[in-house]
Write a structure and sequence with these properties.
The complex is a heterotrimer of chains A (238), B (323) and C (236). Chain B has two domains: 7-244, Rossmann fold, CATH 3.40.50.300; 257-322, CBS-domain (Roll), CATH 3.10.580.10. Helix content of chain B is 36%, strand content 23%. Chain B has 13 helices and 15 strands. Chain B has helices at 47-54, 77-82, 99-103, 105-110, 114-127, 144-156, 174-191, 202-208, 227-232, 237-243, 247-252, 285-295, 315-322, and strands at residues 7-14, 24-31, 36-40, 62-67, 70-71, 84-88, 162-166, 194-199, 211-216, 220-225, 270-271, 274-275, 278-280, 299-303, 309-314. In chain B, 42% of the residues are buried. The longest helix of chain C is centred in the first third of the chain and has 36 residues, at 23-58. Mean pLDDT of chain C is 80; it is low at 223-236. Classes of the chains: A mainly alpha (238), B alpha/beta (323), C mainly alpha (236). Chains in contact: A-B, A-C.
C-alpha cells in the first residue's frame, strides 16, 4: 500500500476506532503525536512567534511616530483598517508571485495582520496617560523622551498587553490558513483530513483543539504577564 | 534647605492670537526672596498663565521674568523646571510609581546617589505629615489630601528655591483644605522658600500670603500689597468688590488677640449684659469680636493656654485696629 | 495545494483583464459570497446581539462576554468549518454557522461593552424620573450604546466577508471557489478574484460606515469613525 499522497492513517493497523472513523480516537492521537501533531504545534508556534515579534516591533515604531507626529496617526490608522479587510487567503495569493511558496510569504501576511491589530492599541495606550500626569511631569522638568519612557510607556502597558493578547490569538487562528501554501502548522493536518474521501474526524478535532488550546494558553500567559507588570492596578483605596 | 529666590516680573505680556484681550497684560511684580506671594483674582483672569510663564510651560511675548536676576529665557526649559517645584490642582502623581518613587523623580533626574535620595524621601514624607509606611503605597491607595501632600513632597524633593502652586487645594473638601493650608504655612515658616500660589479664593489668599497680588480680567495687576493693606485700602472699586464688603472683619481675622494691647483684668469685670466671654490669646480678633457680639458685651477676658487670665480686650481696640 | 506561477509584473494586469473578461461569473460568485456572509451575520446578530445587550444591561457576565470573544477569536475559521464537517457535511449551512461563530465575537463584546458602559448618571436620572427597566433599556441605554454596537456590527461584517473565501474548501461557494482553484483559473484568475474580495470588503466597510453615521443619534456623532475602539480594548 504505497501512498503518493499525504500522511493517511494506515488502515492496515489502525484500530477499529480509526477504521470506523469514530468521533475521536485517542490511540491514533497518541500514536501520531510524534510524527504529525507535535511537529505541527511547534511549526505553528514558530510561525506565530516570528510574526508577532516582527509585527510588534513595526507597530511599536509606527505608534511612536504617530504619537510624536500627530498628523500621521489618522492616515496610518486608515491604512491599517484597510489592510485588515484583505482576506488572508487573498493576501497569501497576492504575495506568492512576489515571494514564492515560502515561509516568507506566510510571515509577511501574518506580520501585516499583527501590525494592524497592535498599532491602534499601542497608540491608544500611549495617548491614555492622564493629562494632569503628563502636565506634572513636564512641569517637573522631564524631557519629552523622559516623559515617554518614564510615564507614558509604563502607563501604556495594559493597552499594549491587551493588544498583544488579541494579536497572538488572532495570529494563531490565521496561521492555520498558512497550510494552504505550505505543509506547516496546525492547519496542515486539518486540510488533509478534510480532503480525504471521508474526512478523518480524529485528526481534524485533534489539530483544531490544539490550535484553540495553544491560543488560550498564550492568552493566559499574557494575562499573567500583565498582572506582573502592572502592580499599581492591583491595589485600591484601603 | 536652600533659601528662597527673588522673582521679578518685568512688564510681561502674553497675547493669544485671535483674541482682543491679552491673557497677561504688562504685569510687573517684585517678589522678594522667601516671600509667600499669592496671585488671586477671578477665574480665567490670567493668574495661572502668569504662573506657568515662570517655568516656561507657557511662553511670554513681551517683557521678562527674572529669577535671582537671571532671565528665565537664559536657561533651557528642562533645566529650569528641575530647579522649580510645581504643584497643580489634580496633583498628577504618577500612578505607576510608589509614593517614594514619585518623590524621588527629580533627584533621580539630577543624578543624586541612592542613599541621598532615600534619606531625602524619608525626610520629606515626615515633613509633609505622612506616615513612613505610606512611602511604599501607590497613589490609588491614598485619599485626596494625602495625594496632595505627596505632590508637595515631590515638588520639594530637589530642594528648589522656588515653589509654584496652582490652586492646589481646589479639589479638596473644606476640612482637608484648611488642614493643608495650615501645613503649607507651617512649611513655609520652616523652609523659607519663595512660593507663588495661585487661587481664586480671596479668603485663602489673605490667610496664606505674605503678599497678595490681585490680578483682574485681562491679566492686569490691580493691587500688590500685604493682605492687611489690601483689605484696609483697596486700590479701586474692582478690588473693593473682589475682597468683599466684609473686608473689615477679614482684617480682624488676620490678627491674634494677643497682638493687641490689653487692659488689666480688674479694670472691667462685668459687661452690661452679664459675665464677659473668655477668648484664647491665640485666637483671632475676629472670633473675639464674634464672642462679644454673641454675649452682648463690649469686652472679653483673654486667657492663655492653661486658662489663666492675662487681660481684657476691649471692643474699642478692634476699632482702632481697622480704623 | 497551489502551484506558483512565476512572477511577472504583468500578472496584475492579467488579473484585471480576468475581471473584465468574466464580469457575470464574478458577479454571481460575489453574490453567493454576500449571501453566505449575510446569513452568517444574520445568525450571529440573532444570538450574540440580544445576549450582549441583556448581559450589559444587567451588568453581569463580563467574564462570559470577554471569554466568549476570546474564544471566538481563538477558533480558527478553518477549524470551525472542519469541526462541523462531519456533523453537517459540506454546503451552505456548515459554512454559515462557522462564519457566524466568527462574527459573534465582536458582536457580543461590543454589544456588552456598549450597553454596560452607558453613563451610570444617565441611567440613574432615568430611574429617578420613574422609567421602568424596559423603558430605560429602550430609551436610554440602547440609543447611547448605538455607536459601539454599530462598530461591532461593522467589524463583524467586514471580517465575515473577508474570511468567507475559505468556505470554498467545504462547498460554500463564493469567490473562494476561484481563489482555491488555481489549477483551473490560473494565477491571474486567483488574483482577480482576490481583488474582488478586497473590493467587496471595502464596499461593505464604506457602506456600513455611511449607515453608521446616518443612524447614530446626532448628539453622539464623532467626526472620526475609523480608529475607534481598537480591537481588544476590552481586554485592558
Amino acid at each position: 500500500m504505497d501512498d503518493d499522497g499525504p500522511v493517511i492513517p494506515d488502515f492496515g493497523h489502525g484500530s477499529s476506532c480509526v477504521t470506523d472513523n469514530r468521533t475521536f480516537c485517542w490511540d491514533w492521537a497518541r500514536e501520531h503525536w510524534g510524527d504529525t501533531l507535535q511537529p505541527a504545534v511547534l511549526q505553528h508556534l514558530w510561525l506565530t512567534a516570528i510574526a508577532v515579534a516582527i509585527g510588534f516591533v513595526l507597530a511599536f515604531a509606527l505608534a511612536l511616530l504617530a504619537h510624536r507626529v500627530r498628523r500621521v496617526e489618522h492616515p496610518v490608522g486608515v491604512a491599517a483598517a484597510l489592510l485588515y479587510t484583505i482576506p488572508s487567503l487573498a493576501l497569501f495569493q497576492l504575495l506568492v508571485p512576489l515571494t514564492g511558496l515560502t515561509t516568507t510569504t506566510v510571515e509577511i501576511a501574518l506580520v501585516a495582520y499583527t501590525l494592524v491589530i497592535l498599532y491602534p492599541n499601542i497608540v491608544a495606550g500611549l495617548d491614555g496617560a492622564p493629562p494632569e500626569v503628563v502636565e506634572a511631569a513636564r512641569g517637573m522638568g522631564l524631557t519629552r523622551r523622559q516623559v515617554l519612557t518614564r510615564v507614558e510607556l509604563p502607563l501604556a502597558v495594559p493597552a499594549i498587553v491587551g493588544g498583544l493578547r488579541v494579536a497572538v490569538v488572532s495570529t494563531i487562528a490565521i496561521a492555520t490558513i498558512a497550510a494552504f501554501l505550505l505543509p506547516k502548522g496546525l492547519g496542515y493536518p486539518i486540510f488533509y483530513a478534510i480532503k480525504l474521501p471521508e474526512p478523518f474526524k480524529t485528526e481534524i478535532y485533534a489539530a483544531g483543539a490544539l490550535a484553540i488550546g495553544l491560543a488560550l494558553v498564550c492568552d493566559g500567559a499574557l494575562v499573567l504577564l500583565r498582572h506582573a507588570l502592572v502592580p499599581w492596578a492591583r491595589r485600591g483605596r484601603r | 534647605m536652600t533659601r528662597g529666590a527673588e522673582i521679578v516680573f518685568d512688564h510681561v505680556t502674553k497675547r493669544y492670537p485671535g483674541r482682543d484681550v491679552a491673557a497677561v497684560d504688562d504685569l510687573s511684580l517684585e517678589i522678594a526672596a522667601g516671600t509667600f506671594c499669592v496671585l488671586v483674582g477671578p477665574s480665567g483672569g490670567g493668574k495661572t498663565t502668569a504662573l506657568r510663564m515662570v517655568n516656561r510651560l507657557i511662553a511670554f511675548d513681551e517683557g521678562d521674568i527674572r529669577i535671582d536676576g537671571r532671565s528665565v529665557r537664559d536657561f533651557p526649559p528642562v533645566e529650569l523646571r528641575r530647579g522649580i517645584g510645581y504643584v497643580i490642582q489634580q496633583v498628577g502623581l504618577f500612578p505607576h510609581m510608589t509614593v517614594r518613587d514619585n518623590i524621588a523623580t527629580v533627584p533621580r533626574l539630577l543624578g543624586w546617589s541612592r542613599e541621598s535620595i532615600a534619606a531625602r524621601a524619608a525626610e520629606l514624607i515626615e515633613l509633609v505629615g505622612l506616615d513612613a509606611a505610606d512611602g511604599a503605597r501607590y497613589p490609588a491607595e491614598l485619599s485626596g489630601g494625602q495625594r496632595q501632600r505627596v505632590g508637595l513632597a515631590r515638588a520639594l524633593a530637589a530642594d528648589p528655591p522656588l515653589l509654584l502652586m496652582d490652586e492646589p487645594f481646589g479639589a479638596l473638601d473644606p476640612i482637608t483644605r484648611s488642614r493643608l493650608q495650615v501645613e503649607v504655612r507651617r512649611l513655609h515658616r520652616e523652609v523659607r522658600k519663595t512660593i507663588i500660589f495661585v487661587t481664586h479664593d480671596i479668603d485663602e489668599a489673605v490667610t496664606m500670603g505674605d503678599r497678595v497680588a490681585i490680578i483682574r480680567q485681562g491679566g492686569r495687576l490691580a493691587q500688590y500689597d500685604t493682605p492687611d493693606a489690601i483689605l484696609a485700602r483697596p486700590a479701586d472699586d474692582f478690588v473693593a468688590e473682589f475682597v468683599g464688603e466684609d473686608r473689615a472683619l477679614r482684617r480682624l481675622a488676620l490678627h491674634t488677640v494677643g497682638s493687641l494691647p490689653l487692659d488689666a483684668c480688674a479694670a472691667v469685670s462685668r459687661g452690661a449684659n452679664g459675665p464677659l466671654p473668655r477668648v484664647g490669646r491665640d485666637s483671632t480678633v475676629r472670633s473675639a469680636v464674634s464672642a462679644m457680639i454673641e454675649a452682648g458685651t463690649d469686652a472679653a477676658v483673654v486667657v492663655d493656654g492653661e486658662g489663666a487670665e492675662v487681660g481684657v480686650l476691649r471692643l474699642s481696640r478692634a476699632h482702632e485696629l481697622v480704623g | 495545494m497551489i502551484a506558483a506561477d512565476t512572477f511577472r509584473p504583468g500578472i496584475f494586469v492579467d488579473a484585471l483583464s480576468f475581471i473584465v473578461d468574466h464580469p457575470g461569473f464574478l458577479a454571481a460568485k460575489a453574490l453567493e459570497q454576500l449571501v453566505l456572509s449575510g446569513a452568517a451575520l444574520g445568525l450571529a446578530l440573532l444570538v450574540a446581539l440580544p445576549l450582549g445587550i441583556v448581559l450589559g444591561h444587567l451588568h453581569r457576565g463580563s467574564g462570559i462576554a470577554i471569554g466568549a470573544s476570546i474564544f471566538a477569536r481563538a477558533l480558527p475559521s478553518l477549524a470551525a468549518i472542519a469541526f462541523l464537517l462531519p456533523v453537517l457535511g459540506i454546503g451552505f449551512l456548515n459554512n454559515a454557522i462557522a462564519l457566524a461563530i466568527l462574527a459573534a465575537g465582536p458582536l457580543l463584546t461590543n454589544a456588552y461593552e456598549g450597553v454596560e458602559g452607558v453613563d451610570r448618571d444617565a441611567v440613574d436620572a432615568a430611574r429617578g424620573m420613574g422609567m421602568s427597566r424596559g423603558q430605560i433599556l429602550r430609551r436610554v441605554e440602547l440609543p447611547l450604546a448605538v455607536p459601539l454596537v454599530l462598530t461591532g456590527i461593522r467589524v463583524a461584517a467586514v471580517t465575515v466577508v473577508a474570511t468567507a473565501p475559505i468556505a470554498a474548501i467545504a462547498g460554500g461557494g463564493g469567490l473562494g471557489d476561484v481563489i482555491v482553484n488555481q489549477a483551473s483559473y490560473r494565477l491571474a484568475g486567483v488574483l482577480g478574484a482576490s481583488l474582488c474580495v478586497m473590493a467587496l470588503s471595502a464596499a461593505v466597510f464604506v457602506g456600513l460606515v455611511a449607515l453608521q453615521n446616518a443612524i447614530t443619534p446626532r448628539g453622539l456623532r464623532r467626526t472620526r469613525v475609523v480608529g475607534e475602539l481598537p480591537p481588544g480594548k476590552e481586554l485592558q
